[in-house]
Amino acid sequence: MLRFIFGRLLVLIPTFIGVSIIAFAFIRMLPGDPVMLMSGERVMAPERHAQIMAELGLDRPMYIQYFDYLVGLLQGDFGKSIISKRSVLTDFLTLFPATVELSFCAIVLAVALGIPAGVLAAVKRGTWLDQTIMGTALIGYSMPIFWWGLLLIIFFSGYLGWTPVSGRISLMYFFKPVTGFMLIDSLLSGQPGAFKSAVTYLILPTIVLATIPLAVIARQTRSAMLEVLGEDYVRTARSKGLSPFRVVGLHALRNAMIPVITTIGLQVGVLLAGAILTESIFSWPGIGKWMVDSVFKRDYAVVQGGLLLIAAVIMIVNLVVDVLYGLVNPRIRR
Amino acid sequence: MPLLEIQNLTVEFPTISGLFRAVDGVSLTCDTGEILSIVGESGSGKSVSMLALMGLLPSNARITADRMAFDGKDLLSLSARQRRTVIGKDMAMIFQEPMSSLNPCFTVGYQLGETLRLHMGLNRAERRTRSIELLKFVGIPAPEDRLGNYPHQMSGGMSQRVMIAMALACNPKLLIADEPTTALDVTIQAQILELLVRLQRENGMALVLITHDMGVVAETAERVQVQYAGQKVEEQPVSGLFRDPHHPYTAALLASLPERAVIGERLPSIPGVVPGQHDRPEGCLFSPRCTFATDLCRREVHEQGPDFGRALCNYPLRIGIPMGHPTLSVALAGEDA
Amino acid sequence: MAVSETKTAAPPSGLAEFWFYFSRNRGAVLGLVIFLVILCLAIAAPVVAPHSPTEQNRAVLLLPPAFAAGGQLTYLLGTDPVGRDILSRLIYGARFSLFIGLVVVSLSVVSGVLVGLIAGYFRGRIDTAIMRVMDIVLAFPSLLLALVLVAVLGPGLLNAMIAISLVNLPHFVRLTRASVMTERTKDYVIGSQVAGAGTMRLMFLTILPNCLAPLIVQATLAFSAAILDAAALGFLGMGAQPPTPEWGTMLAEAREFIQRAWWVVTFPGLAILITVLAINLMGDGLRDALDPKLKRS
């Protein structure tokens, strides 16, 4: 097993180098040179410009610049924000828990509803229940989530007044972040009502972010189940006189989960893409909103560092999914 | 009353171009301690009729029968729940593809123990003891080590032995073996057949052996039932069937056995293929491929009495001569005399 | 003995069979009909639209839809904050969305299939190199990569389309490569290779046609995904720029009015949803009709 993980890590190295090249090239593909980008609108004397170029090592050949960049990365130097001058890594680590909290709740919701829905649709294939579930799933899959979020805000926040519109917790509560996860921190703070407040702020963004993964998981579960239900070993299980619940819920589902787990893993990229939109709509202070804001503020150092860090997160999650896949599928396990 | 009795069983599947009749009015009986073999080409409905008996067909299959009784119970009137107390316990089945018939996600021990817990209510230790005993019984060496194995770690022959052990777990009264050796190597085939016959004798159970291999029939069965395109065309004891087949299809099947070939001559084959959904003929289903077919055969066909093995043929054969045939029977009889 | 009454019918074949399976899926037919309606509206936009998409009527700012209280029949779906007719803008918007989908799919299918074909046919180092590059592209969330690409290239519809095509590319490369690899070793390919068929002929005439079914399905999905992504970029202000009546851009402009005028937010999103849903319904129908494994008995 360790060898398996190690092998996968080795494959990641060239991918990571490629990702770093893209991040490195990104800032150099922009019109104008980095110093001009950093100075923004200000006009700069040519001597001053050359001096800064030399200070930053930007007058040296590309490959040396890239090498320096790579060495910096390995030392944890992901650059500094042009605007706030704060370390990109520090900002990332501060904001990342908010995105993790939101994404985690979304994927839990998607799995908790999607798998049973998919199994039910497969077992009741061709009935109105199957058609209703799959119809709903297809609508969810086709949903422009930025619009869906606005609709939910209009209805639940505007019309019913049930949920707040933006942020992570009511301004009434203030406490120092311990874990960065608002649900946990609000409980740790011991302030009455803080946890409830955090939950109400979390509900709508979670629903919006979960919509597409939920639909994908439900559809994938259904088709995996349909395939598995036709397998010989399911017939064997039925020939033993086992109850339909056990045949479907244990013998079939265990096998159907193998492709579904891959799908769930692939949703991480979808979630982070969705987080960009969801966080923008709900002003959720996570890395998605951070990236969009940085693109708009032309804070390219942050965009560059953030791009790399997000890609690294996705690669690590994919590795974890690969390992999990090995755990559920005995044929891969040694 | 026989252990298993099926009368006039018909199974149909809805398809995009109408109903497909996979089994067409098949009847059969099988008694305790007997080996009945059902023979036919692929697509002749032999597996489907047994799957219908076990209740393993998909829910869109339409199953009708005049009677379907097992061990004194009328299977047609049992609820699904009641039927599940019979299936896997008194009536068990093994399948053609042993490798894909075992669940790849569970160990052998788990899959064996599942039946034992469900039908016998054994606890963990008893299940382990019984599982080892069963694996030893079907000739698996070092059974203790095998319990923790996953199916992909075993060969086809080994998997089929495990399947047999699973089927025998609750000492069934009837075992249905659906082409149990087709997917296996020739050397393993003989071992598995031998094992099945030995177990059948030792346990005194009834065995229904589905096969397309006449050689398997000759070695194992006592009574044979030949199926063609979903219909039963003939039924005889093994010795009688091999000596004097009454249906032209049976005769043709036997003639195509390599063991019966005349050295130096081409092996005879049956021209054409089993009719499918779209080319099902009127009258006798074998008529397009039958050398003796007449216009009558292309219109209708009648079942013969027990003398002719209930052959579904207008001109049943007696020592190779089609009886009552308008042209051939006279000519051949004359030649014979 | 009973004579069989089962009807004998000729086995269905070819295009008829495809249409048979496709039309059996009621959702797919519905999707096709909706799609055709949207397509006709888009083509005939200047004729069908009651107003010009850019004409501002200062007398009727934020007019509610005709069926709501205070609505006017001339502005069926109401007006936006600067007095433009929402219905007309939506009809013109269909042109943009369908055009984006078409361009993106054409770009990514043509280049993706070509690259995938090369990777799957030649294998070896070329294959490894191509797949590594695709892995790198896939390591980024698609929308983020598109966003950053647009930031580099400059906001606008054309750049948005290029960015989305690039992000879509790996899916086509992987799919083509996988199908080519399974087909490559099949007997019919070996057969024509032995018969002396050249590399080009083998790649494009022998192998490619047999890989088309999954590609068609993927192309349909990419079509709807492109519309969604372009709308998302527009919503973030990085796609089509105002006053272009692109649906996502319309939503972005309407965002600040969500508490006051629900219709300016609701209708553009509904237009996106219906279009994407129609295409996805067709995609499902295509998959059922083209994938023999999923065909019902």
From TrEMBL, chain A:
It is found in: Cell membrane. It comes from the Bacteria. The chain crosses the membrane at residues 9-30, 95-123, 144-162, 198-218, 256-282, 302-328. Residues 96-325 form the ABC transmembrane type-1 domain. Keywords: Cell membrane, Membrane, Transmembrane, Transmembrane helix, Transport. GO terms for cellular component: plasma membrane. Belongs to the binding-protein-dependent transport system permease family. Gene3D superfamilies: MetI-like. It comes from Xaviernesmea rhizosphaerae. GO terms for molecular function: dipeptide transmembrane transporter activity. It is a multi-pass membrane protein. This is Peptide ABC transporter permease. The lineage of its organism: Bacteria, Pseudomonadati, Pseudomonadota, Alphaproteobacteria, Hyphomicrobiales. InterPro entries: BPD_transp_1_N, MetI-like, MetI-like_sf.
UniProtKB/TrEMBL annotation, chain B:
Its main location: membrane. One of its GO terms (molecular function) is ATP binding. Keywords: ATP-binding, Cell membrane, Membrane, Nucleotide-binding, Transport. GO terms for biological process: peptide transport; transmembrane transport. CDD domains: ABC_NikE_OppD_transporters. It is found in: Cell inner membrane. GO terms for cellular component: plasma membrane. Belongs to the ABC transporter superfamily. PANTHER family: DIPEPTIDE TRANSPORT ATP-BINDING PROTEIN DPPD, OLIGOPEPTIDE TRANSPORT ATP-BINDING PROTEIN APPD. This is Dipeptide ABC transporter ATP-binding protein DppD. It comes from Xaviernesmea rhizosphaerae. The gene is dppD.
TrEMBL record, chain C:
Gene3D superfamilies: MetI-like (1.10.3720.10). Residues 94-283 form the ABC transmembrane type-1 domain. One of its GO terms (molecular function) is dipeptide transmembrane transporter activity. Its main location: membrane. The keyword Protein transport applies. It is found in: Cell inner membrane; Cell membrane. The chain crosses the membrane at residues 28-48, 60-78, 98-121, 133-152, 188-209, 215-240, 261-282. CDD domains: TM_PBP2. SUPFAM superfamilies: MetI-like. Keywords: Cell inner membrane, Cell membrane, Membrane, Peptide transport, Protein transport, Transmembrane, Transmembrane helix, Transport. It is a multi-pass membrane protein. GO terms for cellular component: plasma membrane. One of its GO terms (biological process) is protein transport. Belongs to the binding-protein-dependent transport system permease family. OppBC subfamily. This is Dipeptide ABC transporter permease DppC. It comes from Xaviernesmea rhizosphaerae.
